[in-house]
Design a protein that fits this description.
Order of helices and strands: HHEEHEHEHEEEEEHEEEHEEHEHEH
Largest sheet: 8 strands, mixed
Strand content: 15-25%
Number of strands: 16
Helix content: 25-40%
Strand order of the largest sheet: 1-2-4-3-5-16-6-15
Structural class: alpha/beta
CATH architecture of the largest domain: 3-Layer(aba) Sandwich
CATH topology of the largest domain: Aminopeptidase
Number of domains: 2
CATH superfamily of the largest domain: Zn peptidases
Oligomer: single chain
């Protein structure tokens, strides 16, 4: 990257950062759940239009916006920078002046930070494009419903956001890392994640006569304790299969066996091959465990998302961008998480990578994601914007060449 472009890019992001923080606070105060992000979509689209760009609204909610010349001019496909817009159904207890004004909804996963960072990167890149400094066009994708499995990424992809694209990049808040640091990893960085439900039914009866009815509660107990053990012997232990229950419902009286009950949880796999087998094995295990108890069973397995598998060269681009804009030693190897992330769907079609973005104030408390009191050090917004803007320019210059026909046909895979 020419030094004048790099310097100008950093200066642009720095000048935009106060506004980006204000936008993030506004989004945090007005969170919206997946596929209802109408206000959030409007905020992003209006700011892009104010910069002279032409954003396009995705069906329902979400925004896509192209910056700079397309493949017909540059001979290079576009680079995507992706953000997610939705919040979580949690009460906001962060205690900040910009706390959620929407009851029971909170930006507790940092999607407001992701949105502000990608917006900032895009606004800066638009100025570079005006001066003819972009080697390849950039596409901003602000997708809905990341928290709603199997994810709004599929909606965005169906709307064509990957058409004519070479690479896709994203960041995700990581409260375990100090602000100014990022975590990267080649290969799987997250887990496959599915929702599973087992509904058990019987005749119901008195607890003094369990032999005269199908004991639903006892049967559920067997599912809770035995099925995870069965999976551990039916699937390769190296695949990191994890079945964890989160909700159990059965009965309302201490002396009555209920007629039905259910248990719900998540089935996660670190390996995509195990994920592909998990549904069949899970269903078989439930049936086999419950066979002795005379209950009726309904097994529901909602496929979620595959693992995010970072491409080696794309990860290298993020790391190079981080070395350019952050302090020495700012890049660290991150562990693979059991969390799910629908960014994975993009990577099934084109190469790309996601980086962990540090949000913890050095020496401060670690505020975990998906908790109502989640807080970030807002300097992470500028860090994320600079990182993604640099990555887009590097990818466009080094890896963006080749035909623009189709999706995922990379000239230098």
């Amino acid at each position: 990257m020419p030094s004048d472009v790099a310097t100008h890019l950093d200066s642009l992001v720095e000048s935009l950062t106060p506004e980006l923080v204000d936008i993030r606070r506004d989004l945090h105060a007005h969170p919206e759940l997946g596929r209802t992000e109408q206000r959030t979509t409007g905020v992003v689209a209006d700011r892009l239009r104010a910069a002279g760009l032409e954003p396009r609204l995705l069906p329902g909610s979400g925004v896509v916006c192209d910056i700079g010349p397309g493949p017909a001019v540059t001979g290079r496909r576009r680079v995507v920078l992706r953000a997610d817009l939705d919040a979580l159904p949690l009460a906001d207890t962060c205690g900040e002046p910009w706390h959620s004004r929407t009851h029971g909804v909170a930006h507790a996963c940092g999607h407001d930070v992701h949105t502000a960072a990608v917006l900032g990167a895009g606004l800066a890149l638009a100025r570079i494009a005006e001066a003819g400094g972009l080697p390849a066009g950039v596409r901003l994708v602000f997708q809905p419903a990341e928290e709603v499995q199997p994810g709004g990424a599929l909606d965005a992809m169906a709307a064509g956001v990957l058409d004519g694209v070479s690479h896709v990049f994203a960041v995700h808040c990581d409260p375990r890392l100090d602000v100014g640091r990022i975590g990267t990893r080649i290969g799987p960085i997250t887990s496959a994640s599915d929702e599973v439900t087992v509904v058990v039914s019987g005749g119901g009866g008195h607890t003094s006569r369990p032999h005269l009815t199908a004991d639903v509660v006892f049967a559920l107990g067997q599912v809770i304790t035995q099925v995870p053990a069965v999976l551990g012997r039916r699937l390769d232990p190296r695949s990191g299969v994890n079945l964890t229950w989160g909700a159990v419902q059965a009965g309302s009286a201490h002396n009555a066996i209920p007629a039905s009950g259910s248990v719900r949880g998540t089935l996660r796999c670190l390996d995509v091959r195990a994920w592909e087998r998990a549904s069949q094995v899970f269903g078989e295990a439930v049936q086999q465990v419950l066979a002795p108890y005379g209950v009726e069973v309904d097994v529901r397995h909602a496929r979620g998302v595959p693992p995010v598998e970072n491409d080696a060269r794309s990860t290298g681009i993020l790391e190079q961008a981080a070395r350019d804009v952050l302090a020495d030693g700012a890049v660290s190897l991150t562990e693979q998480s059991l969390g799910g992330e629908d960014f994975a769907w993009y990577l099934t079609k084109v190469p790309g990578a996601m980086a962990r973005l540090g949000t913890r104030t050095p020496g401060g408390r670690t505020y975990d994601i998906h908790q109502g009191d989640f807080r970030v050090d807002e300097r992470a917004i500028g860090v994320g914007a600079r990182l993604l803007a640099r990555a887009a320019v590097l990818a466009g210059g080094e890896l963006g060449g080749g035909s623009a026909d189709g999706v995922g046909k990379v000239a230098n895979p």
